[in-house]
Protein 1
Amino acid sequence: MSQGPSKTPTTVEDAHNVDHLSRFFHGRRAAPDKKLPPGQYETNGFPVLSAGPTPRVNRDTWELSVTTETGTRHVWDWTALTALPSENPTVDLHCVTKWSKFETHWQGVSLDVLLADVETAAEYALVSSYGGYTTNLPLEDLLDGKAWIVYGYDGEDLDPEHGGPVRLLVPHLYLWKSAKWVRGIELGDDDTPGFWESAGYHNYGDPWQEQRYWGD
Ligand SMILES: Nc1nc2c(c(=O)[nH]1)N[C@H]1C(S)=C(S)[C@@H](COP(=O)(O)O)O[C@H]1N2
Ligand SMILES: [Mo]
């Protein structure tokens, strides 16, 4: 009987703490690493955003060329690309039109691997696509595990709508930098604005700094 009164408050307090802790841990479990850059919302779909029609690029004739500032040209075809060691990055995508998609699964070759034997002191890359699209970024943003040339999505071949057979993936920048149907990378000392960069999009496009448009 003497333990009764002391037991009751202890139990209530335990319950309170357990509830508090479970909500704390539940909240963390529900959103492991999910972080939205400013102004973005999450989508579970995979919107298709293309400035023009989807070019039908055959993987048997597809080529990627890297041209350095000295004019040296390196070329990979499908066989050469897929013979390189590949990685399976899981990354979050952030589109400037404000959707973000968490934990997308890709297969492709790291630019570190692709450019391993390319001698260059260039600072900038101008990426071009079948169909005429271009986008520019500092070369360092393609290196150190930050970018891939991808040909697989979610365990399947990459859909033409999403850039198949092969696209660039640079997930730490807004998705317009991830050129679909990639065909060339020109390395140089001059920074040349690409398609959207010439039309008013930010030259760099860091979603965490909300660099959407010129002047942001
Ligand atoms: N070649 C090419 N690449 C492109 C585009 C494009 O129009 N053409 N659109 C860019 C933009 S604005 C976005 S948001 C993403 C969209 O990729 P998704 O269609 O796979 O979602 O591709 C980028 N890469
Ligand atoms: Mo976009």
Note: Residues 62-209 form a domain with the Sulfite Oxidase; Chain A, domain 2 fold (CATH 3.90.420.10).
Protein 2
Amino acid sequence: MIRANDNYSKLKASYLFSDIAKRVNEYQAKNPDAHIIRLGIGDVTQALVPAVIKGFHQGVDEMAKDATFRGYGPEQGYLFLREKIAENDFHSRGADISPDEIFVSDGAKCDTGNFQELFATDIKVAIPDPVYPVYLDTNVMAGRTGGFEDNRYSGIVYMDCLKENHFLPKLPDEKVDLIYLCFPNNPTGSTATKEELKVWVDYAKENKALILFDAAYESYIRDEKLPKTIYEIEGAREVAVEFRSFSKTAGFTGTRCGFTVVPKDCMVYSSKGEKVSLHSMWNRRHTTKFNGVSYPVQKATEAVYSEEGKIEVKDQIAYYLNNADVICKTVESLGFDYVGGKNSPYIWVDGKGRDSWEFFDLLLTRASVVCTPGGGFGRCGKPYIRISAFNSLENVTLAMERVKEALK
Ligand SMILES: *Cc1c(COP(=O)(O)O)cnc(C)c1O
């Protein structure tokens, strides 16, 4: 008899985006003339920049001739790309990461989801609340939790991110082995300083724990004092893996490219307590289960690091951050408390005592604006909504005028 992985039945169905769609569709049906502006889902809206398109085309043209055609490439990614990543994203920040510690992939969702495979099922996992749902759900699938009760899975150490702690997770009271961190954060848009990250790196070293650091929004950091990579923190090479993505950095959500950094200094421990190289394990996993990102996409990604590419991509991020400024100014003028929006495309707004769905409905019905209810990201998100800066400046400006009118 073919038996199912029972862990899948523990998963709480994620109704968040389908519930949003349902409410939006109902509203549109009742108000056929309403022009709805979507500041909900975390997806970019601007086209790939010209330099990236040029690189993409070059890759395609090479595939069109026998002499330059490429079949299977290295599973870890072409060296031409890994060298550019090491130089531009790490060496330029004083972080000592070599090209062979970089694993190019089709995005950070897969990598953040798959990485937990390398660990025993009975480790203690610490996950922030609210959070990008992938970290939690993939640990449920792997059998690291009990059932779902009172909005939480048993067996997981939840780290509450609240206004009182500036939306930064606190060190857990019980000893944990694996820690997920994400800065700039999705959904809250909060950031962490070097000193704040150092606390986690020190904890991991003391407790032989490992940090999985999701830096998908690193390129939105404007404040030069903030770290862009966890490897700016002393000691992080021994205890941290970093996930990166070109999705939010260069508009690659539909193109698909990201990478994971696994330093050779990172060690995990066998059941006998012997050291095992995490780099070797991930290399084995990646080369066994993944066959490389397509050549034209890697050429397109390489162009992100060209002189024109860097400028164009920076301009695109500045465009979204300008939208974020418009949103921040509006919520501030209306007297709402919020975080994010400064070094992040997300603004996390306290609903002044409203439940997140109530606030969602209010913005939808009074302003025809769609946001994301914070409760969808975890129990601690219930009093908040997330507003995203991913839309045109015209739409964001119009949406904010309407919100002002509706809530003044
Ligand atoms: C968007 C996002 C990612 C990136 O996903 P891709 O698979 O690379 O598109 C990773 N982590 C977080 C927190 C995100 O919001």
Note: The chain has 13 helices and 17 strands.
